[in-house]
Amino acid sequence: RNFFTKRTKELKPAVQSAPGWKLFGKVPPRENLLKDSKIIQQEYEARTGRMYKPPPPSARRKNIEFEPLSTTALILEDRPANLPAKSVEEALRHRQEYDEMVAEAKKREIKEAHKRKKIMRERFKQEENIASAMVIWVNEILPNWEGMRATRRVRELWWQGLPPSVRGKVWSLAVGNELNITPELYEIFLSRAKERWKSFSETSSENDIEDAGASVADREASLELIKLDISRTFPSLYIFQKGGPYHDLLHSVLGAYTCYRPDVGYVQGMSFIAAVLILNLEEADAFIAFANLLNKPCQLAFFRVDHSMMLKYFAAFEVFFEENLPKLFLHFKSYSLTPDIYLIDWIFTLYSKSLPLDLACRVWDVFCRDGEEFLFRTGLGILRLYEDILLQMDFIHIAQFLTKLPEDITSEKLFSCIAAIQMQNSNKKWAQVFASLMKDNKEVDKNHSPAPKN
């Protein structure tokens, strides 16, 4: 309390406002005003009696036309006074080099500006196309779906990609609802799933589950396994992670499906398909589309791990692989690299894990239009796009490359390669080739079946 003096009335206002400055031997900020350099020089000369002499002209920097704005301009600077000065030839050479660097920088800047303008023009054009396409879909196609879905105009518009605002609706209509699932049915299976999760959390050991008569599919539907896969689904999107807005929603759709189809259960890869549907549809509609989509022959064969059917799909794929990309086909054959090494992951997730999400959605667009054939056509399009790179790789590098595709893949490049793939072999289309493989397999099974006993 006795640290500061109590006679505050005798202090000046400037001192009162900042007593701490006096304590540390400094002056208040208001007293420490900036002085002009000439005044400082005059005070110095008055105190010392010395006259200030400027350095000789040779030691000073030459008066050039500009101040250097970056390290590039340092080439025009004079050397320090303790080093020999530049010759005229050297100074001219440095000036020329500097001008060349500036010109090159301007070229790069102009090129980048043109590139940005091009990207913006393409983006505006794309947005305009989406807006005009959305009007057509909403006002003309969707109200007359059954009559217009197979027309050439609609199919061409479909190929260009669905507007995001109508994408979910078109997917639902294209996939259909052959299973006749209703939102009420979804709620029933969701409540069953919640009851099962509760019983699983209360069960202390796996033996108790087996004693209760739970099947393998029931164990696969446990909360822990689905939760583990949900955290791996689009890890870059927080919305599906724990605490995200879609985490519980994705968990509900997957849990309800395992109760609806205990014969299939939960299989890794399902979470990606359900997540894409949730991004484009309401909860009940996403479940309806999910259940019907997984009921298609190709998806059912893969998710039920039907080896004989999967081998037929791989065999049909290789028929068109050899037809379209013979050089790459032989390269793969030389390393005994079979389609299952890369196709299984692509088919299980419908490319949503392997491709950027926006590009995967466009693949889904045409998949909903053309069916399973387009999944294998997309695979061939990817191989065609990277054919030159893959031809230079060995088995390990090919497998690694196809497992994790480059992130800079664009829809224009991929779809141009997909369009170049011909899904016809000896005048037979995909469905005919696959049907012939099925027929040949049945004949083989018939010939190898045991003779009937007398």
TrEMBL record:
Keywords: Coiled coil
UniProt KW Coiled coil keyword: yes
GO cellular component: cytoplasmic vesicle; vacuole
GO process terms (BP): vesicle-mediated transport
Highest taxon, organism lineage: Eukaryota
Encoding gene, per UniProt annotation: Tbc1d12
Single GO molecular function: small GTPase binding
Entry keyword Ribosomal protein: no
Protein name in UniProt: TBC12 protein
Pfam families named in the record: RabGAP-TBC
Organism per entry: Pitta sordida
